[in-house]
């Protein structure tokens, strides 16, 4: 009976050892960094220096061959020192361009606003409008607004007034001028007091009236 117990103990000691060794594999313990480097050294890469050029997609071009590195890049020529690419002066994009494409060497405007903006309002191409009584404007095909300001003539009076919806001032009482502090109409002589008769200069309304003294008609004091 003692012999059977001893043999059972030996079997129990051997079986765990077998299970432990089978559960351990190389996948649980990655290779050392030195082993990885040595394995990478076995890889072979083609060297095209001095022989050709390689783009980002891996295509190889011969020396002197013209190619495009990408859809939005300028064309290049494969040289001994690497690609030599064109660098043209691209035209400026219109400031009101709403759609720009980058499918070529230079960006290209594909859509521009078909209206003009002026003081917060939109106007159609070639539309004419008056933002004020003195301004005449038009929306140009370039999406820019060009305006002309009316050139008002000098009024022929010293008291012009501005009427609603009119650009230039008007002389409601006709031409006139100053005789001292009194406004007198032009074209006639006006007796401004007991001793002076005045009249406006012809065409020179801004000049003071020309006056002459006459015999005073004042009452004599007793």
From TrEMBL:
Keywords of the record: Repeat, Secreted, Signal, Synapse
Domain (VWFC): residue spans on this chain: 114-172
Matches recorded under Pfam families: VWC2L_1st (PF23333), VWC2L_2nd (PF23334), VWC2L_C (PF23331)
Keyword Acetylation on entry: no
GO biological process: negative regulation of BMP signaling pathway
InterPro entries: VWC2/VWC2L, VWC2L_C, VWC2L_N, VWF_dom
Secretion signal, residue range per the UniProt entry: 1-21
Keyword NADP set for record: no
Lineage top rank: taxon: Eukaryota
GO CC aspect terms: AMPA glutamate receptor complex; extracellular space; synapse
Name of the protein in its database record: von Willebrand factor C domain containing 2 like
Residues in coiled coil: none
Main location: secreted
Subcellular localization, as worded in the UniProt entry: Secreted; Synapse
Gene: VWC2L
């Amino acid at each position: 009976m003692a012999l059977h117990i001893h043999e059972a103990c030996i079997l129990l000691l051997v079986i765990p050892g077998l299970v432990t060794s089978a559960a351990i594999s190389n996948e649980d313990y990655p290779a050392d960094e030195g082993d990885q480097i040595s394995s990478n050294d076995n890889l072979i890469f083609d060297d095209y220096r001095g022989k050709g050029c390689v783009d980002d997609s891996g295509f190889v071009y011969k020396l002197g061959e013209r190619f495009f590195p990408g859809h939005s890049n300028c064309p290049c020529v494969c040289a001994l020192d690497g690609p030599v690419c064109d660098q043209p002066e691209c035209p400026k994009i219109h400031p009101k361009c709403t759609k720009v494409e980058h499918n070529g060497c230079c960006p290209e405007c594909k859509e521009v606003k078909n209206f003009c903006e002026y003081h917060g309002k939109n106007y159609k191409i070639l539309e004419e409008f008056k933002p004020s009584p003195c301004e005449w404007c038009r929306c140009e095909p370039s999406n820019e607004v060009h305006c002309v300001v009316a050139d008002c003539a000098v009024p022929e009076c010293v008291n012009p007034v501005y009427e609603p919806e009119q650009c230039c001032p008007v002389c409601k009482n006709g031409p006139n001028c100053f005789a001292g502090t009194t406004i007198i109409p032009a074209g006639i002589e006006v007796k401004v007091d007991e001793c002076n008769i005045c009249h406006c200069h012809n065409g020179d309304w801004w000049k003071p009236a020309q006056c002459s003294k006459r015999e005073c008609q004042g009452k004599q004091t007793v």
